[in-house]
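Is nicotinamide-adenine-dinucleotide placement plausible here? Inputs below.
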Amino acid sequence: MKLNIVCIPGDGIGPEIVSEAKKVLNKIAGVYGHEMNFQDVLMGGASIDAYGVPLTEETIAAAKAADAVLMGSIGGNTVTSPWYKLPPDKRPEAGLLGIRKALNLFANLRPAVLYEELADACPLKKEISSAGFDMMIMRELTGGLYFGERHTTQENGIRKAVDTLTYDENEIRRIAIKGFDIAMKRRKKVTSVDKANVLDSSRLWRKVVDEVAADYPEVSLEHMLVDNCAMQLVKDPAQFDVILTENMFGDILSDEASMVTGSIGMLASASLNDSKFGLYEPSHGSAPDIAGKGIANPIATILSAAMMLRYSFDLDREADAVEAAVKEILKKGYRTVDIMSEGCTQVSCGEMGDLLADEIR
Ligand code: NAD
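Reply from A.M.:
I modeled the complex. Tokens:
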């Protein structure tokens, strides 16, 4: 298969971790007989330095012409970097919002996996963490409360602020279809999360999800209220496979789920549109505090590349190989400094990339 991948190394540790992900992808290409072409483009702070803006039309055009986008991370130290003296729409993060919008990325996927070898980093009690967990949070990314009409007024000296939460059935249906498609590649269970006991938008969400479920008889569906889901994530995270939810609930639940894994350098993510196209990036930021030191953990970016193989290219066998390599290397006791524990061997960002690439044969 011929794959054209646009890479946005970005800022901080971004270039270091993207280069390790390319190393692993090149190994996959060699072992499984694919042709991978990489094109690097600028975004965020690097683009501000070169062109004065965080996102150029050229970067958008290159991304649109590619089969998928692999990103490191953008942004700098928000206190000391001159990028943050610029108006908000000229700062690095504006590039990220801009590209998501330009590519119509409405489905955000964030896996939260507890690796047996890293179970000590999990803040939950041992009797809960020992069951392990492997879930995918699917969050609607372009509708709901964050994109509704809002205003602040003052009546008779009383200040009043209004935000609106709107979803139409098409917005719900397209994310629900993505959620069920992804469940079909996993353990075939969807937990749809809403607040249907209070909100009309949630009652419509539930109806449309039920309609979509009828086309996926192999997938088991349950509905859960968001407050219960927040509790269940810390009480019994092993019960979840795919959690399907709207924008604000997903924002909060995905952060909660990732924190219970305890390892920020291990968390991948993807944002998809209604074709197979996606933007893949680690969940963490650009870690300016450790940039250039060669100690960043590249695994979140490498696992994001595995998601790209699975969800944009349907290369499940190749994605499995990358994920298995990560498990194997952890089992062998290799760790970057952020996940280091006693008795393990500490390796640099580049060494971790080499080890993972070597593990794929
Ligand atoms: P951060 O995730 O960059 O860093 C938080 C802490 O985790 C730091 O101590 C950092 O060293 C550590 N860390 C993060 N990733 C690591 C890795 N792969 N290996 C080892 N350690 C790692 O969050 P922050 O410091 O709040 O933000 C820094 C910058 O990143 C800001 O400019 C922020 O806006 C930006 N940011 C960008 C994205 C994105 O591009 N999607 C997401 C979040 C934050």
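Short version: The longest strand covers residues 2-10.
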